Amino acid sequence: MAKQLHALAQKVWDYHKLDHTLIKSDCIFVLCSNDVRVAEYAAQLYLDGYAPFIVFSGGVGELTLGMFKGSEAEHFAQIAADLGVPESKILVEPQSTNTGENIQFTQALLENERLDPQHFILVQKPFMERRTYATFMRQWPNKQCIVTSPAISFDEYPNDVISYSDLINVMLGDLQRIRVYPDFEYAIEQSIPDDVWLAFQSLVDIGFTEHLLSDG
Question: Superkingdom of this entry's organism (predicted)?
């Protein structure tokens, strides 16, 4: 059972990852969360010269309530600064509570700063690459983007913040949203292979339902 469970979860994980090739861009756009490894990775991208500035976007979500002193974006920005990113090259959007708001509020922030980047590097958790891409392309279709995440495998990802079970639950919630959100014009449509959806259904049948939409 454990081997089968792992194979099903690995299939869903692999689908979520897009494996885009990094290229130099106009802006590193970090969608913040409870995973500070994303902040560390984004800081390294800046230090490696992939873009001239970073935007950290994220308020306080369900998973980060009480976790950080301030918002997700403020906490991530401090990590980046501590790692050597100049504060003058960091912008912070501390109000958004979901992926759509990450994009909409960052649009407003950049407009207010009179910045108009055309190509973005979106930085996310590995299992949120695909939904981030689909949401960005719907919300900001006149821009270009690639999505990247820390080089962490499915087996390496769980830690003291997110358990193996939590990870599967969140991955399934994201996969369900990839399927249904285009109907609400929240995201562009993404093809889901039959074997990936069968893996989703099998894991739901096992009991991984905590992050599914209530009407799903």
Answer: Bacteria
